[in-house]
Amino acid sequence: MSEPARAQLAALAALAGLPALGPRRFLALVHHRSPLDAWALASAGDAAALARALGGDRDLDTLARSWRSAADGVDPLAVLAAHEAADVAVLAHPSVLAEPPSPPDGPRYPERLVDDPEPPAVLFARGGPVPAGPSVAIVGTRRCTGTGAGMARELGRELAAAGVHVISGLALGIDGAAHRGALDARSGHPDAASPIGVVGSGPDVAYPTRHRDLWEAVAAEGTLLSEAPLGARPAGWRFPCRNRLIAALADVVVVVESHAAGGSLHTVHEAIRRDVDVMAVPGSVRSPAAAGTNQLLAEGCPPVRDAGDVLVALGLVRGRRRRPVEHRPLPGPDAAAVLDALGWEPATFEHLAVRCGLGLAELAVALEELVAGGWVSQHGGWYEQRATA
Amino acid sequence: MLGLVPSATLLGADGHAVTVEVHVTDGGLPSFSIVGLPDTSCREVRDRARAAIESSRLTWPVKRVTVNLAPPTVRKVGSGLDLAVAVALLVASGQLPAEAVAGKAFIGELGLDGRVRPVPGTVCLTEVLGDAALVLPVESTDEARLVGDRVLHPVHSLAEVVACARGEEPWPTAGSAGPLPEPPPLPDLADVRGQPMARYALEVAAAGGHHLLMLGPPGAGKTMLASRLPSLLPPLGPAEAIETTRIHSAGGFGLPPGGLVRVPPFRAPHHGASSVALVGGGTSLMRPGEISAATNGVLFLDELAEFSPHVLDALRQPLEEGVVRVARAAATVTFPARFLLVAAMNPCPCGHGGQPGGCRCTEGARLRYQRRLSGPLLDRFDLRVEVQRPRPDDLFGSEPGEASAVVAERVRQARELARARGVRSNAELPAGRLDDLAPLDDAATRLLLGALRSGRLSARGLHRVRRVVRTVADLAGHPGALGADHVALALSLRVDLAGATPHPESVAG
Q1: Cβ of residue B272 closer than 8 Å to a chain A Cβ
Q2: Do A354 and B357 touch (CB under 8 A)?
Q3: Which residues in chain A touch residue B489, judged by CB atoms under 8 angstroms apart?
Q4: How many CA atoms lie less than 13 Å away from B354 in the CB half-sphere?
Q5: What would the pLDDT profile of A220-241 be if each residue is shown by its tens digit?
Q6: In this structure, are B157 and B101 located in the same domain?
Q7: Which site in A36, A304, A335, A386 is 20 to 30 Å from A277, CA atoms measured?
Q8: Is B196 in the same domain as B337?
Q9: Residue A380 is nearest to which of B354, B394, B492, comparing CB atoms?
């Protein structure tokens, strides 16, 4: 890469670290202006000049001050060097930086984002290049039920095994479960499709910290993308931007569980804006965690019963295949009665004791049998059915 | 002239014998000095005693008065020595004959009008007075009667004491103790409709002495359930009754009519409690705290996560040792603190948590809420149950559940089995003897091994669960080897805090 191109790329990387610099402002800054000039403008702290560049008539004094203090002492070339040292590729949108900044076989700016209505000016990537094959985003609430998490994991596993790249946000709940599933598939078959993680903080800042292992696994097995440079803390405004990237990268967005007005509905909105198909997993009408997805279904979203439905929507298979029969020991008579009483909503031990009229000890034995046999999962004193008899 | 009168002072929940010595001399200017490590309230005796003596138409000597509280190494706290000081002063000033008060000890606070008022800790004070006859406030008679057979002279006022000492009236004596009045009925378990698991958890807690944590949303009846626990516990034995009565007397927690605490106490301090209020102490008073007041009974901590973490961690040592040692610069005292801990908390700040997908809190908020409880404290709860609101059908029209008396009988039998094993309750079974006393059959072993392998149970939790299994089997009338049904039930009485552990579907593997 030529030295001038390197300096321009470095300026982009430095710009990405500024606070409250969303995609629209970023594009406005580098519109008809080289990244180096944009960096000079952003770090100068001149509110009037910024207002001219960004358009609009808002008073930008606070923004100018915060950018100037954030840019103070930042050397763009050092920022770029830090990324190179950490093996994080800095990918610039072709319209922002004309000269291809990296060799053709290295990581490249994702094709799908080039013509996006709101593309990121610069992306930071860990792991391999963004693959070109079919891809599905699996998104949903962080406050999910066991059924939802189990469904996300199953979809992730089966789609990855069928060669579909699973995209998700690596958040708690549905997101994480989907990628765990995709990684399950990879550990069994190395030719399963690689996962793509899109995150809202710097690619080295695992958030939530509980998912550090998942971040590392996704970066090792697939690709980890972010609009934020190394070290960027998770900030509230970055997550909606992250959701738009998830929608933009996917062929189909599958919502597994979403509360009414949940954050995943934002991803849905971005997908509709980009003409990306949205599908939803039906949930119990009494489950608050499924209120959002059931609303999507009521509005005409195609339902997802299993990975087959998604594969049909992608045009990868013609008709739905029968699901292979799962082999698990059949429950005994007591256990079958308990399974029946449990139904498909979470219940506590006490709920079940009242419903099925068994003695506490018999009920406890029946539940142990169901948990051991994989029929029922137990978490925090709540039991949920996982499979039908 | 010299006056010597025995009395006693309170430190923590222990009485210490004190001899009040008063010396009155004509030499020098009139003065009053008090020595022998009195605290402020004790030092104020001068003003109370002077007013009481003058109100009783006696004379305050216009002389040099020295009061010594022997032994001078023990700190004297409070107003219990007032009466003794006044009497000794009257003897020293020649207004009472010395032989009239010989062999008598005096306890009581003086009012300015000369009346004699009760003081906290009468039980503990009486214990240390040897075989002296005790002159004490009428209100304290019941308490003093609880320890020993000494002669008691209950009095109303200083004037009465003086009249008796001068032989103008006979000393009043306390009549023999009548039968203790029946304690008022305790809240009964029959009031609880539905909620079979929560009821059972109470039964196991009462039978085995296992600490209980109830998780559930507001309005699920956690407080109602906990307050039923004393009615399931066996009534206090004579030694236990005295132990608890001493603490209640010394701490001023209030005593029932008759003076003796016979039903297991139920203490429910508010979550704003300071660590001193909970474990005891204070600068000079060394008052027992709520955990000692709950000795031989129930300590109920509602809204456990709202207690300051520092206060909760102060509970760990007493929970382990059954006593609490409070050390201050002035003294170190030991209080009994052997109680059944019952705690209740919401699973998360919004209170609706627990139900998967039903909570409005973020995962982080829920974790932070639950992390306020330290792991070691959480480990002490052998029983952790999810308590949900009873359904409307259960509240109306359904049969009332078993009454406390029925459950208490099973509890009594289980406790008897524990006593035969040499412990008060199964929670105290030594780990080394579990293989003997709580052997597992094959199916039970497999189930526990499975729970260990899946990480649901830690190695440390294993012993604790085995004790609970023993109690479950005892209650079911199975004194022999423990079966899989007992293990399964004990495991379902031990839920994890949701959120403290990641959801099984979302972890690797």
Answers
A1: no
A2: no
A3: 360-361, 364-365
A4: 22
A5: 999 999 999 999 999 989 999 9
A6: yes
A7: A386
A8: yes
A9: B354
Q: Are residues B68 and B195 in the same domain?
A: no
Residues in chain B closer than 8 A to A213 (CB atoms): 508
* Structural domains in chain A (count): 3
Residues 6+ apart with CB under 8 A from A341: A347, A352, A355, A356
Answer whether B94 touches A (CB < 8 Å): no
Same domain, A145 and A78: no
The token pair that represents A142 in the structure block:
């962080």
Burial B463-477 (b: 16+ CB within 10 A, else e): bbbbbbbbbbbbbbe
| Residue A23 domain flag | yes
pLDDT tens column, A68-110: 999 998 999 999 999 999 999 999 998 888 765 556 566 789 9
pLDDT confidence tier of residue B509, bands split at 50, 70 and 90: very low
Q: How close is the nearest chain B Cα to the Cα of A33, in Å? A: 42
B-chain residues near A362 (CB < 8 A): 485
Structure tokens at B264: 């297991």
Distance from C-alpha of A196 to C-alpha of A129, rounded to nearest angstrom: 10
For residue A214, the chain B residues in CB contact (below 8 A) are: 508
Counted across chains A and B, CB pairs separated by less than 8 A come out at 143
The answer to whether residue B7 neighbours chain A at the CB level (below 8 Å) is no
Whether residues B126 and B219 fall in one domain: no
For chain B, say whether A382 makes contact (Cβ under 8 Å). Answer: yes
Kindly determine whether residue A145 and residue B357, on different chains, have CB atoms separated by under 8 Å: yes
**Boundary of a domain, candidates B392, B422, B452:** B422
Burial of residue B252 (CB within 10 Å: 0-12, 13-18, 19+) is middle
Residue A19 lies in a domain: yes
Report the CATH number that the domain containing residue A269 is assigned in CATH.
3.40.50.450
Look at residue B282 and tell me if it is in a domain. yes
Query: What is the residue range of B42's domain?
Result: 2-165
Q: Which residues of B touch A372 (CB under 8 A)?
A: 450
**One-letter amino acid identity for B335?**
F
Q: pLDDT tens digits for B378-433? A: 888 999 998 888 777 666 666 678 899 999 999 999 999 999 999 999 999 998 89
Q: Range of A381's domain?
A: 333-385
**pLDDT band, residue A322 (cuts 50/70/90):** low
Q: By the 8 A CB rule, do B262 and B236 touch?
A: yes
Statement to judge: residues B153 and B194 lie in one domain? no
Same domain (yes/no): A266, A369: no
